[in-house]
Amino acid sequence: MDTGSHLLFGATLAGLGFMSPEVASDPHLAAAVLTVTLVGSHAPDLDSVVRFKSQDSYLKHHRGTSHSIPAWFIWAGLIGSLASWAWGVGDQLLLLTLFAFAAVALHVFFDWTNAYGVQCLLPFRKEWLHLDILCLTDPFLVVVHVSAVAFGIFGGQRYALWACAIAWGTTLFYIAWRFLHHGVVLRRVRRRYRRWRAVHVLPGLWWFRWQYVVQTDDGFEMGFIEGRRWLPTKRLPLISPHVCIEATRHVSSVRTLHGFAKREYVSWTREPDGGYLVIWTDLRFWRAKDWPYRAEVKLDDQLNVVNERIGWYKKTWEAPYV
Fold it and tell me: For residues 75 and 8, is the Cβ–Cβ distance under 8 A?
């Protein structure tokens, strides 16, 4: 999920702390709980500092080690300890550590629901795991949790507890419904394309709009589903091998994409000034006008790398919402 959503979930998680009589009766402890849930809800994304090294390094490591199983406990222990010391509530270290752990675990869980995915089972499994059921920013969940925060601010502790409890109950029900709905759409796509080899269905910004990509023996089929309407959009044939493609396989940005992508696709063009432009992408994140997530490698006529870059070529508010 995006940073704003993570922090919002951290705020409503803190509201559940009022179920504890100690938290409800001690403003310093309540503030400490809010501190650990806000920090914990964002802590795994501190791996963004790698962006200062290069975009390649950032995409290679983001949602990796900092989201791994050992990191859950390290973040929780560090955040809980610092907050208990800073707020002078050392006798509540265990409580604060548990809330910090919940915030970190929920951060990783919400990233798992997104199509981009997360390496949350490191070091036991390096695979990127993704449920493909929620957008990076889910408007419904934002409204639910903003409402809960507003009730907490203007209604006091009593309303904060009930509002946050209802918000989290609604969230769990909503995620379960999205999971089941995604399964229904996935089965529809598989029935339509009987010769599928792989199928991915990604959520749109609105509830009943999905986009899909299907790999078959002949290539890739892509389109949208809006309710019961099918909107086939594009078909890509398999690309024949070429020396310029082989020359890019071991380039750093392409290796980064290889380690992440589920449905790799590559194309190449001859440049007007000589050389080649080779573009690799993950077709899960297709859109009609271009490939928003891609690695571009420019080669000269001798197949030497002239330039390379990798990244997202889209605005945050543009589809796909990952």
Answer: no
Of 179, 196, 223, which residue constitutes the final position of a domain?
A: 179
Domain that holds residue 161: 3-179
Query: How far is 257 from 314, CA to CA, in rounded Å?
Result: 17
AA letter at 195:
R
User: Which is more confidently placed, 285 or 157?
Assistant: 285
pLDDT confidence bin for 187, thresholds 50/70/90: very high
Q: Is 156 left (phi over 0), alpha (psi -120 to 50) or beta?
A: left
> Taking 90 as the threshold, does the pLDDT of residue 248 lie above it?
yes
Token pair of 283 as six digits: 């077709």
Q: Each residue of 143-158: b (16+ CB within 10 Å) or e?
A: ebbeebbebbeeeeee
pTM score > 0.90 for this model?
yes
Q: At what angle do helices 69-86 and 27-42 cross, to 10 degrees?
A: 150
Report the domain count for the chain.
Answer: 2
Do the domain assignments include residue 219?
no
Identity (one letter) of the amino acid at 206? W
- For residue 249, report the phi and psi dihedrals to the nearest 5 degrees: -60, -30
Q: Given 179, 195, 216, which residue is the final one in a domain? A: 179
Residue 52, pLDDT score:
86
- Amino acid identity, residue 178? R
CB atoms within 10 A of CB 82: 15
Please calculate the CA angle 146-322-192 and round it to the nearest 5 degrees: 115
SS (H, E, C) 27-84: HHHHHHHHHHHHHHHHHHHHHHHHHHCCHHHHHHHCCCHHHCHHHHHHHHHHHHHHHH
The more confident residue out of 315 and 45 is 45
Residue 296 has phi, psi (to 5 degrees) of -110, 130
Task: Determine the pLDDT at residue 60.
Answer: 87
